[in-house]
Amino acid sequence: QPLPTQAAPPLPAGTMLADLLKAVGKARKGKSIDQLQSRLGWTKTQVRNALSRAHAKGLIETVTSGIYRQKA
Fold first, then answer.
1. Mean of all residue pLDDT scores within the chain
2. Eight-state DSSP code of residue 3
3. Element (H or E) spanning 21, and its range?
4. Is-contact 16 46, C-beta < 8 A?
5. Which pTM does this prediction carry?
6. What is the pLDDT of residues 5-35, one digit of tens each?
7. DSSP labels for 22-61?
């Protein structure tokens, strides 16, 4: 009997993590920090911090160094 899977709870609209996930989109190749920074209008520090939080929650994965995408 397989274990039930738990989907990540939906993020409240307007949060930095929700905005980050929307900016990353469904790109298979992922997006760089520079692309995310220009799309969101955040500082590099804000982008890195949001990516770190998203990675800790299991929402983002690293494709290569500096390139990120949503986990499938």
1. 85
2. P
3. helix 16-24
4. yes
5. 0.75
6. 555 555 566 788 999 999 998 888 999 999 9
7. HHHTT-SS-EEHHHHHHHHT--HHHHHHHHHHHHHTTSEE
